[in-house]
Please model this.
Amino acid sequence: MNSTLLLRFRDLSCPKGETINRHSELIKEKGYAWWGWWNKGHEKLPFDTITDLGLKDDGENKHVYLFDSAQQTFYKASLADIHAQVGNEVSTPDADHTPSYYVENQHLIWFKFNDIVEVESSEIIQSKSYESMCDLFIEESHYEIYDNKIIASSEELAEQNRTIWRIRDRQHDDRTNEIRLKSMTELQPRHFDKSYKVTSRDSLLWLSDPHFTNSKFHAYPLKDNNAAEKTLAQTIQSAYFERKKNIASLLISGDLTWTGAQEEFELVGDFIDHLTSVNNLDKSWFSICPGNHDLSFYEEENNGNKKDEDTIKKNYQASRAAYSDFYAKYFDIKPNESMSSGRKLLLNNSIPVEIILLNSVTLQQTRDSFQGHGYIGQEQLETVEQEMEFAKGKSRNVTRICVMHHHLMPVSLSQRAYHNAKYSTVLDAERLSRWLTKHKFDFLLHGHMHQNFFCTIERALHTHKPAEQASNPTNKLHILSLGSSGVCEDHTGESKGNWTCRIEFGHEKITFYYGKISPQDATLTEEYKLEFDYNA
Model:
């Protein structure tokens, strides 16, 4: 795979362009020059990598690449030898073959170059990919998000807090997304925020069940070449962002796709990329959970395959992989085992909001009755508790929101009974209810049945005991669902059509502005609002 190293440098100790010039002059005059590696404080000698690459072994045609991060230019250096001592910084092996400006320095590695030539950026950018280099960092690095991904741009390299990479020739199955750390509030990708992200904007845009697909089930054009009908991205742009609705980020409660296929997640990506690029949204703020259509269990036209457990497992693994790739594109990290996550936002400059995204799609794999049932599970809830540090309690000024795809309680008047029917409520609803009560959640938001819904429940943690403030306190929970934001009207519920909701965190109230949209109309002329007090 032609693996080698890429070394980063800047002209800090000499004038612009002189790092390359002074090494090249020595090579021209004396045949070779020694190049010292200026490592950062969190980097150590990558001994295993150097050994594995055979860079110290005798042989010809060895080379490494050099990256001037200030000028964003690349060079190829022919490598004759390496000088290093494990555990210690060392002086140059030959002062006469080392530029004078740093001849007295000590470094972890000295590279002996006998030729340095500038190369086109295309020799690196889009042509090479990152390889794992876990032996470089003193502590955990979190740079595994780049492994087996192409080097997408010079800016992507420059934004990383490191001075050396292991790279190889690009392969056909390498990931192609670009990771731009400067577009993220969290420089270290996490599933659960450790600190609050601050914005002066006061609203979140809640969408649900857009069901992107090339089939008839998505209600909107997929290309922006139709004057009469707008894409969902264009509709959202017109309804909210062009009307200055003060949107800080998006919240999507599942069923982004129809079958969980990779090409459908690419359509979702196009939708999000459009809104992100036009409105300068920070991707690390997004709140997204999977729905049962995203973790697909069978193709609708092949119902007979439900009896084939191998097909069931294959379809599930393929859709989970597709969702994982989609998730990694926006959060630069693969989802955790439960596919849960958490956000901490400080909206309107002063209002703390915690958002928990649960995966309610635990798939039951039983012959003859396999379906996408809603299920949370104790292990997932314990993971969230630990990551969000719920044991410390909830501050009175925090608004805590849980988001999942399936229902906690029914929202439709009735559901048709048939053999092997699907459930819309989660099977462990009471466990979830107790958990939401214990941790004093204010709101539960969901999608799934393509139907707007609202109710408030107040309950104690233990419903078989009297409610008491000290031993068995009560909690008031507002439960809201949102109709589909993108499915065709034939698949919408009692509140026909497509719906969106802007959640505004004002200084006095939290207001849910429900609005109806369509490919022909983004004016939100059919709308209503629900208002709630803080700390109800």
Observations:
- The first strand starts at residue 4 and ends at 9.
- Residues 309-331 form the longest helix (23 residues).
- DSSP finds eight helices and 22 strands in the chain.
